[in-house]
Amino acid sequence: MDVSFLGGPQPQRGVGVVAPFDFALDRELWRWVPDDVSLHLTRTPFVPVEVSLDLARLVSEHETLREGVRALCAVAPQVVAYACTSGSFVGGLAGERAMCEAMTRAGEVPSLTTSGALLTALEELGVRRIALVTPYTESVTSSLEEYLAEAGTTVTGRAFLGLTRHIWKVPYRDVVDMARQAVVGEADALFISCTNLPTYDVIPQLEAELRMPVLSANQVTMWAALRHIGAQAVGPYQRLLIDSAPAAPEPPPLPEPAAAVADDPPDEQGGWT
Q1: Which residue(s) pair with 134 in the sheet?
Q2: Going along 54-186, which residue ranges are E strands?
Q3: How do residues 37-86 score in pLDDT, each as one tens digit?
Q4: What is the residue range of 124's domain?
Q5: How far is residue 130's CA from residue 157's CA, in Å, rounded to a whole number?
């Protein structure tokens, strides 16, 4: 079959993603992306450090981020996202803002981070109290709590695994178990942290069971990046995607009914005979 008459694929909008060197869930990110958008990923340089606050600082250094953005700009993305939760909350609110500014200056393209996207999602849903699930150690989990507190969000309960490597291998069963432990008190939503923790398929189950919005690091990252370019993230039964979907356009007004037409001419008095 000769396909040359098709002229090739249509141009796609692009989302650039800078991820830590150990990020293993490229395919999960793609699951939130509509067909007319392409992802362009790059990774930070390898450093021989286990998952910790030290690693979070190393993979979020401004020069590291700038190099990643410059590499992505060769394919002209419309927005760049730094896909790492710990790397974007370790410096607090001011540190997260400085990271976005450094990336934006490096590529002259709008930029965002996972932790910044989380705060945007919480604001979108009107959430002020959350239950927290992480694969991290206690010190990294506590740093996330401090970041959220600085933004005015209260953590009502938490559960964490204490892992320092191979986070992408955690099964859904463990994520569900942690969620059940963390949801205590008066939480408005659940947040599952770490872009290296698989969450796509578990979100609908947890939302149905817990009766609250369930957010995850990869979900909020892709939701925020796609929204920035006017696209809608794809995902079944995910409250964030449903509540923030653009309203359906109003249907066009129906045409006015045509005036009745009589077969006979009017009489001399102007009436119909």
Answers
A1: 160
A2: 79-82, 111-113, 129-134, 154-160
A3: 999 999 999 999 999 999 999 999 999 999 999 999 999 999 999 999 99
A4: 12-243
A5: 7
Instruction: Tell me if 248 is assigned to some domain.
Output: no
Q: In a 3-state reduction of DSSP, which class is residue 159?
A: strand
The predicted model scores a pTM of: 0.87
Residue 56 lies in a domain: yes
Residue 150 gets the label, from left (phi > 0), alpha (psi -120 to 50) or beta, of alpha
| 110 assigned to some structural domain | yes
Q: Is residue 107 part of a domain?
A: yes
Residue 63's nearest CA partner among 80, 50, 44 is 44
Number of domains, the chain: 1
* CATH number where 133 lies: 3.40.50.12500
| Of 250, 248, 214, 246, the residue nearest 233 (C-alpha) | 246
Read off the amino acid at residue 249. P
56 φ/ψ angles, rounded to the nearest 5 degrees = -60, -40
